[in-house]
Design goal:
With 173 residues, the chain is mainly beta. It folds into three domains: 1-45, Hormone Receptor, Insulin-like Growth Factor Receptor 1, Chain A, domain 2 (Hormone Receptor, Insulin-like Growth Factor Receptor 1, Chain A domain 2); 48-53 and 61-127, no CATH class; 128-173, no CATH class. It is built from one helix and 18 strands. It has one helix spanning 106-112, and strands at 4-6, 12-14, 19-22, 28-31, 36-38, 41-43, 50-53, 58-61, 68-69, 75-77, 85-88, 93-96, 100-102, 125-127, 132-137, 140-144, 149-153, 156-160. The chain has a two-stranded antiparallel ribbon. The chain has a two-stranded antiparallel sheet with strand order 3-4. Strand 15 (132-137) and strand 16 (140-144) form a beta hairpin. It starts with a strand and ends in a 13-residue tail after the last strand. 21% of the residues are buried.
């Protein structure tokens, strides 16, 4: 019977509020109209980082960079405080704010497509090294802040307040 579950004592007990079917008094398996399944509960609205899939009546993950998104996977808002990202209106994606870079880590990216309550602890935008105005990684600055010098040392391109030992300043570049 819809809206009830068998508690193994041959007694039908009611499902939680808004559940159409359930496994127990706390675990929903499908929801009534106008509510969406997430983490075994039926919600009236999906939280940030999820959108309402009205075909399946579930809360579905947004792309990793979006704070909120539409059903097409386009970001509708970004979180500049937690994620250090702003909305690129041309691509409809959230890009790192100035002074941050996109951290590409496939092991971390997989975490972002699960229903992870600690999603805010995963940082996909990381701060550029000290002195870098912009960068592509933790070892590749693309522009320096005022009063910093650009320097290639080994395989790194960083910005320095003073030249490292055995290097001199060439202000022509």
């Amino acid at each position: 019977m819809s809206g009830f579950f068998d508690n193994k004592t041959r007694t039908s007990l009611p499902c939680p509020t808004n559940c159409s079917t359930c496994k127990s008094s706390t675990v929903c398996t499908s929801c009534t109209n106008a509510t969406f399944l997430m983490n075994d509960q039926c919600l009236a609205n999906c939280p940030p980082r999820y959108y309402t899939n009205t075909a399946l009546f579930i809360c579905q993950n947004c792309p990793y960079d979006c704070y909120t998104c539409d059903v097409y996977g386009s970001c509708t808002s970004c979180n500049d405080t937690l994620d250090n990202r702003v909305l690129d209106t041309d691509t409809r994606r959230c890009i790192p704010i100035e002074g941050y870079f996109q951290n590409i880590d496939t092991s971390v990216s997989r975490l972002l497509f699960t229903q992870d309550s600690n999603i805010n602890t995963v940082r996909m935008s990381l701060k550029c090294p000290t002195g870098c105005k912009s960068c592509n990684s933790a070892t590749l600055c693309t522009a320096c802040s005022d009063n910093y010098l650009f320097g290639f040392i080994g395989t790194t391109a960083l910005c320095y307040s003073d030249c490292p030992l055995r290097y001199y300043s060439n202000r022509q570049y």
